[in-house]
Amino acid sequence: MYLDPKVSRSVKVLVVGHFAVGKTTYIGSVSEIEPLQTEEEITEASVGFDDLSETPDKTTTTVAMDFGRLTLSDDLVLYIFGTPGQERFKQMWEGLSRGALGALVLVDPERLEETFPILDLVEAFGLPYVVGVNTFDGRTQFPLSEVCEALNLSDETPVIDCDVRDQDSSMEALITLVKHLLSSLG
């Protein structure tokens, strides 16, 4: 990882979510550097492990992590780590969560049941989090209040619509996370 000697502070956050929710795309949309991506072709070995029924056009998957960087000020840099979404990679979460201040949890509102194990991990690691409801073309959009209720989120958990393909929308989710982290620290 490149560390700039002029930067006096760095902050680590995670982008998490279930398989095929848009984590890699999200990091690519906000990173000021070419993101590190560990995407590999989906092969027959994933049969029985990865459910592609909702994402039949998906041909690659993250097998380790994604990494991006965003300079917030002259002396503050945000390091953004994306976790793999499959259950078989959850052991990577422990290492990636060390030193993280919080997480952006991306969800697909049509596959909310896949979010519960992700929320359990985020909460087990004691990370404050924000939920970003990803927008998918041609999919039903649900009111955020319904998503909150379905996920049984506390009133203190910020929830925001997010189109991970759109830099402005992705940045708004990141700003919401940073504000939430600042308020939870203060």
UniProtKB/TrEMBL annotation:
Family designation: Belongs to the GPN-loop GTPase family.
UniProt keyword list: GTP-binding, Hydrolase, Nucleotide-binding
Gene3D superfamilies per the UniProt record, alphabetical: P-loop containing nucleotide triphosphate hydrolases
Organism annotation: Streptomyces dubilierae
Coiled coil is among the record's keywords: no
Coiled-coil zones: none
Record-given protein name: ATP/GTP-binding protein
Matching InterPro entries: Gliding_Motility_GTPase, Gpn, P-loop_NTPase
